[in-house]
């Protein structure tokens, strides 16, 4: 049969997943000549073959592609004949729009684990072992395509043996970009907290294991940043860590050696197990068997567990008999530390640093997930899952940059029919986090050679992200701006993931978002599509005493509720909330409440949770975000039925009847349980007249009890499984809102 030359283009997750070696192996099977290469659109194959073999070859690509890959499209065409002697993997240069995915970080694979513990293997105990199927990606990438020279591995010269493996198409390490060994790869370095090298007798791992056994706190360089780690069974070590990090009660994540150790500590469902052992290796929030250690999560029976995901973690855990507390090394409100320089600020927190000399190019926190009614709920989307490419149900008219919100910020770029969503960046409350945020915009724009024509941002004039949007627009007059209301964006994020463009009924419950009337919304029921929304109902406004201060102090919200209920009579009340204030304070807050002085109006469901927690004496001042909701979950009793009254009229939900009934209840667990049931009744009452899909979003839906109850009542309710319901999803929703935005 006549030999022709064909060009095959494959798009999808096809780089950094062993795709080229896979194609090479196919070329040997079908005895074809040509080339395969990565380019900025994916993988390109040039093939000399006949039409029948071509067909077989394409079918094999489509059905046998490597486990970590996914294919969006395969296209082929005939081209001018080029003679080839053999089949080769080559590099190609090209330009134009980049549509390939940035591959997320990947944890260690089973085969590498085996070699790591095999005394006869030349990589025995090598803390940076990788192969084509495992090991770093996103966090070491400067640029695409994912080739060694575009990563922080470019500073390491391969030794002869590694080079042979790298160039042998039949080797498991063929073109494994971060390949290395004891001789040629990155090296560990153990330092004390003044940056002085620690003398090591055997090796750094042994020494670190000894230090952990002694109860020391170690700053450990991981994939996307440093962790602070210590013995999770050592009370005084944990207390010391909490004291030094000024983190009195916030739950700490725990790294366990393997799934068996996880099962000793917690009740783990099959779905949770699947996530824990997955190659993404997220932190999974699970139910503790008993209050394992009240120091890890005081007052809370849930624990965030994860398995080792780098060979270094694996080697340490293998030699330890206990799990490790492993919390991101960062200063409050600042991004995770990614180099020794930034880590220095935590000198007083850690005793030693287990460092290494491979640069972290892109910082990336651990991802956090939970499972509710067998559905995956993303709480923080980062390492292993990000960046993500989401396919839109339509084609954008222009290139869009979406700047997200102010808390848990992420950014997104949208072009054609796709969105690239950055990993979790964090709260924009400090100069360094804003710098980090801007660096993320730059990297996405650089990697994707992207210049936006439309900028989408939140309506809140004081968000740092909004300010940055305005700065960009000032410099580029022809950029079109698109303001997107916060709760509309929340619902749109779910619609993007589920590819919905038709009208839906959205319930957006969160802490705060800027409303069209300038008030602080957060208990919102909207009917929306991509373009527009209508606010059909919301929680009746209440006053936040002290403005922003009320966010951290549930007692202020509760006091405001009490004033609404009882006016001056509050002075004579004696309950957990009023006990928190002196009579002088009550007096002045009452005046402030009456006159609306420093008491902005809000409909926030997050604040309702806070207020309830204070009224019941559960939480008066929060030491971390979401604390009140977590503590309320603990008191929920599944056997309690019934709910409290509320009024729903003219689109306003009056919760005061619920609050006054709740105050009269004798048993706190009954109050809490009925409170949750009342929220479900509220959703049911507002949703009732509408024959539209029910979509839930907003940070309050991270509450496992509330989400579980609503999903029980409305099994068809739509939630996001891959995008966080909190503000981490806002940027994606903002891109959705630009569906029809174009210049002119
Ligand atoms: Zn491997
Ligand atoms: Zn080597």
Task: Describe this protein's structure.
By secondary structure, the chain is of the alpha+beta class. It folds into five domains: 4-89, Alpha-Beta Plaits (2-Layer Sandwich), CATH 3.30.70.100; 101-185, DHBP synthase, CATH 3.90.870.30; 188-369, DHBP synthase; 387-506 and 726-736, Nucleotidyltransferase, domain 5, CATH 3.30.420.360; 535-668, Tetracycline Repressor, domain 2, CATH 1.10.357.160. Strands 6, 7, 8, 9, 10, 11, 12, 13, 14, 15 and 16 form an eleven-stranded mixed beta sheet that branches. A six-stranded mixed beta sheet has the order 17-20-19-18-21-22, sandwiched between helices. It has a six-stranded mixed beta sheet with strand order 28-29-25-24-23-30, with helices on both faces. It is globular and about 90 Å long. The structure holds zinc ion (ZN) (2 copies). One zinc ion (ZN) is lined by residues 158-159, 161-162, 180-181, 183-184. The site of one zinc ion has 8 residues, from helix 4.
């Amino acid at each position: 049969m006549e030999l022709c030359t064909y060009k095959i283009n494959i798009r999808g997750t096809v780089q950094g997943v062993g795709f080229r070696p896979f194609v090479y192996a196919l070329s040997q099977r079908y005895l074809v000549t040509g080339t395969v290469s990565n380019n900025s659109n994916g993988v390109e194959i040039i093939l000399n073959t006949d039409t029948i073999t071509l067909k077989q070859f394409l079918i094999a690509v489509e059905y046998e592609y490597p486990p970590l890959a996914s294919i969006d499209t395969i296209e082929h065409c005939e081209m001018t004949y080029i003679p080839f002697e053999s089949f080769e993997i080559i590099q190609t240069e090209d330009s134009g729009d980049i549509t390939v995915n940035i591959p997320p970080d990947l944890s260690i694979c089973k085969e590498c684990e085996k070699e790591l513990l095999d005394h006869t293997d030349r990589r025995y105990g090598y803390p940076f072992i990788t192969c084509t199927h495992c090991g770093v990606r996103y966090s070491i990438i400067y640029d695409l395509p994912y080739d060694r020279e575009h990563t922080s591995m470019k500073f390491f010269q391969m030794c002869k043996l590694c080079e042979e493996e790298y160039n042998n198409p039949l080797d498991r390490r063929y073109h494994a970009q971060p390949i290395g060994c004891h001789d040629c790869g990155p090296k560990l370095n153990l330092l004390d907290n003044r940056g002085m090298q620690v003398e090591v007798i055997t090796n750094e791992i042994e020494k670190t294991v000894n230090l952990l056994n002694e109860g020391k706190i170690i700053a450990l360089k991981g994939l996307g940043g440093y962790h602070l780690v210590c013995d999770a069974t050592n009370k005084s070590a944990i207390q010391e860590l909490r004291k030094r990090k000024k983190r009195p009660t916030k739950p700490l994540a725990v790294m366990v050696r393997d799934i068996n150790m996880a099962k000793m500590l917690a009740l783990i469902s099959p779905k949770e197990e699947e996530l824990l052992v997955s190659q993404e290796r997220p932190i999974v929030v699970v139910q503790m068997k008993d209050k394992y250690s009240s120091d890890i999560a005081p007052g809370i029976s849930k624990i965030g567990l994860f398995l080792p995901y780098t060979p270094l973690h694996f080697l340490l855990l293998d030699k330890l008999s206990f799990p490790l507390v492993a919390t991101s090394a960062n200063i409050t409100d600042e991004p995770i530390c990614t180099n020794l320089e930034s880590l220095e600020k935590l000198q007083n927190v850690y005793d030693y640093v287990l460092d290494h000399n491979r640069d972290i190019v892109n910082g990336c926190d651990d991802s956090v997930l939970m499972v509710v009614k067998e559905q995956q709920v993303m709480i923080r989307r980062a390492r292993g899952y990000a960046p993500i490419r989401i396919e839109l149900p339509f084609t954008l008219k222009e290139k869009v940059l979406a700047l997200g919100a102010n808390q848990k910020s992420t950014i997104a770029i949208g072009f054609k029919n796709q969105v690239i969503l950055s990993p979790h960046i964090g709260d924009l409350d400090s100069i360094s986090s804003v710098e980090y945020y801007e660096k993320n915009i730059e990297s996405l724009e650089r990697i994707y050679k992207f210049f936006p024509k439309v900028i989408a941002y939140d309506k809140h004039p004081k968000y740092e992200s909004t300010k940055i949007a305005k700065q960009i627009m000032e410099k580029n007059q022809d950029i079109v701006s698109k303001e997107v209301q916060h709760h509309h964006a929340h619902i749109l994020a779910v619609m993007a993931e589920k590819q919905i463009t038709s009208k839906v009924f959205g319930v957006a419950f969160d802490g705060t978002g800027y409303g069209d009337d300038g008030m602080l919304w957060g208990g919102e029921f909207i009917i929306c599509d991509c373009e527009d929304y209508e606010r059909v109902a919301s929680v009746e406004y209440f006053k936040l005493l002290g403005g922003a201060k009320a966010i951290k102090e549930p007692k202020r919200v509760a006091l405001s509720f009490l004033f609404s209920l009882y006016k001056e009579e509050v002075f004579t009340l004696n309950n957990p909330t009023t006990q928190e204030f002196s009579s002088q304070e009550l007096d002045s807050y009452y005046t402030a409440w009456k006159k609306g002085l420093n008491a902005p109006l809000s409909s926030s469901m997050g604040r309702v949770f806070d207020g309830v927690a204070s009224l019941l004496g559960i939480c008066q001042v929060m030491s971390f975000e979401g604390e009140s909701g977590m503590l309320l979950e603990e008191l929920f009793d599944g056997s309690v039925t019934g709910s409290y009254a509320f009024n729903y009229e003219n689109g306003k939900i009056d919760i005061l009847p619920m609050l006054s009934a709740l105050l009269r209840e004798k048993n706190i667990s009954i109050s809490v349980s009925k409170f949750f049931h009342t929220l479900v009744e509220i959703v049911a009452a507002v949703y009732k007249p509408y024959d539209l899909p029910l979509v839930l979003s907003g940070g309050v839906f991270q509450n496992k009890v509330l989400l579980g109850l609503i999903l029980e009542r409305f099994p068809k309710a739509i939630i996001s499984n891959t995008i966080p319901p909190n503000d981490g999803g806002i940027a994606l929703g903002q891109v959705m809102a630009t569906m029809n935005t174009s210049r002119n």
